[in-house]
Specification:
The complex is a heterodimer. Chain A starts with 11 loop residues before the first strand and ends in an 8-residue tail after the last helix. In chain A, about 40% of the residues lie in helices and about 20% in strands. Chain A is globular, with a radius of gyration of 18 Å. Chain A is an alpha/beta fold. The longest helix of chain A is centred in the last third of the chain and has 19 residues, at about 235-255. Chain A has eight helices and eleven strands. By secondary structure, chain B is mostly helical. Helices cover about 50% and strands about 10% of the residues of chain B. Chain B has eleven helices and six strands. Chain B is elongated, with a radius of gyration of 24 Å. The chains are: A alpha/beta, B mainly alpha.
Chain lengths: ~260, ~250
């Protein structure tokens, strides 16, 4: 990937948590990558929905890291992964409630103020609502409105959620504050039951998700688009095929030649 | 905090279920969907431990291993926001809860320590070595060592043997030096005699080889004619291996 011989992304995204305070071989690789490609970061451990206080030491590391590697965009997840002072290393669903909106919005503002940059929050996939008192889309709209954050629109997540919770993906997207979308993710998933899809990032993108992506682009200004693949990684040529398809859709819908697709 | 106690409690209950798998009732939650969260969260922890401790995973019966990981994740509040550091917490938990006795695996602490050390040295932050020259006086000049290293002592030769029965038969005193190759980044390790472990420890402190050799009789080391030459041969070999970098300049 670094040589650009087998796959040619326009930028690179990585999780800062996996690279902070790392030395040796991987630090050399990191430096090679950031010299060659623009860098975006997608965090894993901020846990914006946690009931507890923000971890100031962690935020300090993040700020230093983002500045050191000239990271152009920092995104995180609209979920929580830490509770009762214990990390769980996965994205747990936040109850769609107004008190949670206020709590999260305050925390997003604190993070944005500290980092001196906007947070781009990803709408996560989820498999069950939890004690919801409002709709998902109202919850997201309120968080964006109260916090001033931007959105990461993972089109596969919307497809997965629409399938799992039986709603119309396009209608959902149309109700979002689309002018706040700063970044798009695309990925594959796995259907594990007739009525349940798990967002695995372990399979190729399926055609209906490409279709939803193309439809979505008609409603957005150009933003970077990332293909996520966490495991079950195929040959680079296959991934390049997916990138090329995404790029061709961006080119068709956005009439630009310099889309950022990675 | 803007969260109402009820919402806080719901989040606590949800996360407690993910950690323990013990049945909970949450408003609006479908149990058949909830179980996927426990599966996904626990698989992540299990995979991380399997990846970090491949020899322990292979040596320990599957039921014991599974019980260990479940016990750890249920009762220990994981602190690291970097998942690659979580195996250190697992190892520490094992020591603190005396798993050697509980699971009747006397070599467990040594094995977990060794496997974690490999990962720690591989990933540790770069450390700049003191300035050095490539030639100098082996006996009287302080040596500059590769600072990216760990010196460990074990009661079982977990760095030499893999089979549990062989480990148990060879209980003793062992020393192992792990260091990161400055060019490849690979972790190399070498078994050390007690004397060479002492030597390494003193060299790190900046003491010269001659002064360390002078101390040998006080360690009850039977001084032989070859001790000095053997020591220098070892250090010259370790220079070729990029552990001894050179002579303080």
């Amino acid at each position: 990937m670094i040589s650009g011989e087998h796959i040619r992304p326009d930028f690179i995204e990585f999780a800062p948590e996996n690279w902070m305070n790392i030395g040796g071989y991987w630090k050399k690789v990191l430096h090679q990558v950031v010299e060659k490609y623009p860098v975006l970061c997608h965090g894993l451990s901020l846990s914006i929905g946690s009931p507890e206080e923000l971890n100031r030491e962690f935020l300090q590391y993040i700020k230093t890291f983002l500045n050191e590697y000239k990271v152009q965009l920092y995104s995180e997840h609209l979920s929580y992964s830490k509770c009762d002072n214990a990390h769980m290393y996965d994205l747990l669903p936040i109850p769609f409630r107004m008190d949670a909106v206020k709590h999260i919005s305050t925390r997003i503002q604190q993070v944005q103020d500290y980092l001196q940059r906007p947070l781009v929050m990803e709408i996560v996939s989820y498999y069950t609502p939890v004690a919801a008192e409002m709709s998902e889309v109202d919850f997201i709209n309120e968080v964006v409105k109260q916090s001033g954050c931007q959105l990461l629109l993972d089109v596969n997540n919307i497809y997965v959620n629409a399938f799992n919770h039986q709603y119309d993906a396009k209608a959902f997207i149309q109700q979002l504050p689309l002018d706040k979308v700063a970044y798009i993710h695309m990925a594959g998933h796995e259907q594990v039951a007739p009525d349940l899809i798990i967002d695995t990032h372990g399979e190729p993108i399926i055609d209906p998700v490409y279709d939803l992506f193309e439809w979505t682009l008609q409603h957005l200004q150009p933003v970077p688009v990332l293909l996520e693949r966490d495991f079950n990684i195929p040959e680079m040529a296959e991934l390049q095929g997916e990138l090329s398809r995404l790029k061709s859709i961006c080119h068709k819908q956005w009439k630009l030649k310099d889309e950022l697709v990675a | 905090m803007n969260l109402l106690p009820d919402t806080y409690h719901i989040q606590q209950t949800f996360s407690a279920y993910c950690r323990t798998g013990e049945k909970v009732t949450l408003p609006g939650v479908a149990p058949d969907r909830l179980k996927h969260y426990r599966r996904l969260v626990f698989n992540m922890i299990n995979d991380t431990m399997e990846g970090a401790f491949p020899i322990a995973f292979k040596n320990i019966p599957a039921r014991k291993w599974s019980k260990m990981v479940k016990d750890f994740f249920s009762h220990h509040a994981c602190q690291s926001y970097q998942v690659w550091k979580l195996p250190l917490e697992f190892y520490t938990y094992a020591v603190e809860h005396n798993w050697e006795d509980e699971y009747q695996l006397p070599y467990l602490n040594d094995l977990l320590a060794f496997e974690w050390a490999e990962m720690e040295v591989y990933n540790m932050e770069d450390i700049t070595a003191d300035a050095y020259t490539l030639t100098g006086d082996w006996l009287d000049a302080p040596l500059v060592l590769n600072p990216e290293h760990l010196l460990l002592s074990f009661s079982y030769p977990v760095h030499l043997l893999a089979k549990p029965k062989e480990l148990l038969r060879n209980k003793g005193v062992y020393f192992v030096l792990l260091y990161r190759h400055p060019e490849t980044g690979n972790v190399e390790f070498t078994d050390l005699s007690p004397w060479l472990a002492f030597l390494t420890e003193q060299l790190v402190l900046g003491i010269t080889v001659r002064d360390i050799l002078d101390y040998a009789p006080q360690l009850n080391i039977t001084e032989t004619d070859t001790l000095e030459q053997d020591t220098l041969d070892f250090l010259k070999h370790m220079q070729q291996q990029h552990f001894v970098l050179g002579f303080q300049s």
